[in-house]
Specification:
Blueprint: E1 3-6, E2 10-15, H1 20-32, E3 37-40, H2 46-57, E4 61-64, E5 68-72, E6 81-83, H3 88-98, E7 105-108, H4 122-127, E8 131-135, E9 138-144, E10 150-155, H5 161-169, E11 177-182, H6 187-199, E12 204-207, E13 211-214, E14 224-226, H7 231-244, E15 245-250, H8 263-270, E16 273-277, E17 280-284, E18 292-294, H9 302-309, E19 314-319, H10 331-341, E20 345-349, E21 352-357, E22 363-366, H11 371-381, E23 388-391, H12 403-409, E24 413-415
Parallel strand pairs: 2-15, 3-14, 6-7, 10-11, 18-19, 22-23
Antiparallel strand pairs: 1-23, 1-24, 3-5, 4-5, 7-9, 8-9, 11-13, 12-13, 15-17, 16-17, 19-21, 20-21
Length: about 425
Amino acid sequence: MKRSIEPSTIDGSIKAQPSKSMMQRAIAAALLNEKPVKILNPSFCSDSLAALRVAERLGAQILRDENSVTIGGGLNPDGTILHCGESGLCLRMFAPVAALCDRELTLTGECSLRSRPVTMIVRPLQELGCRVVTHEGYPPIWVQGPVRGGNAEVDGSVSSQFLTGLLIALPMAEEDSRLSVHSLASRPYIDMTLKMLEEFQVIVRHEGYETFFVSGRQRYQGETYRVEGDWSSASFMMVAAAVGGRVRISGLDVHSPQADRKILEALTEAGAGLRIVSDFVEIEKAELKPFRFDASDCPDLFPPLVALACHCPGVSRIEGVERLRFKESNRATALAKEFSAIGAAIEIENNAMKVTGGKLSGGPVSSHNDHRIAMAAATAAIAAEHAVTIENSESVAKSYPAFFDDLAAIGGRIHE
């Protein structure tokens, strides 16, 4: 579906979307919990729905209404195929969870997920007692457990998602485990996992994020879990306000371990007006200036930061391009191509993206079927000279199904 976003004045209030990252972690934990868990403020984006389907396939009983999801746990697989949609977290996180079972299970997906590397899961799961096969380092993944625990070496350089899965699964193993982790990317995402585990009374210790100690034979003991607001999706609305008006966003935890909370640092350096109160964050347009930001630990901020930089006079520099290669698209090249098409001046230099701010002309762009590129283009359109038309705009459903509704609610002028 094509959508055109015209230059707009932003003014209004919205509630932050629930975090799909925390939702998927909570689904996996509830699957392993001894009693049913009620998840409040649930996310129903495409990635979260994929995780719910996988949990159900692994034996969970799921009752869903508009405001909550109740998951009755118990590993008792129904069939052998676990379809993860396009969710990299779902695939890499549920691989170790599926390996708790003593039958062969296949984790697969569609579209871009089939080209995302999974070589990092093979050796560690083998060291922990499992049989693992991939399709030349890519999905599908065939796993057969049970995971017994023990010592394993983990490569965290491409993604922290597999380590998250190990930390969720290994407390259920028969033996204690010691994980030696090398070159861990995106440490805040592991903090998110550890925080969630604590709420289910599961304890994992670590030394400098390099060695993790997991006691086996632990019990997941949760009753309710509230999914916190999502800084990733909120960052686009914040940038829309910074370039086009004002927005108040409620439902965000300013002390959250979410990596994308760092959007506040980037907005401050760029000169946007910022007000933080206990129950909301308010962003307001001000005189913007170029900024420097290292997004290595928060690569999902790259798209909204590029949209912001396009409207900051001068040259902004965003570090961490190497983290963008294996997303729904190669985001570095896709962002450079599509934003250049609507008037941006973007240069990729080693591990950095340099954006020379100015007035965007507008025009057609492709989302590359990437939800964050679609949202970034819509955000940048707010202060462009002419409308930006986005091909495959429906890709936003992967993380933020209500994105265009929320943008319209705060003044975005959108035409289908």
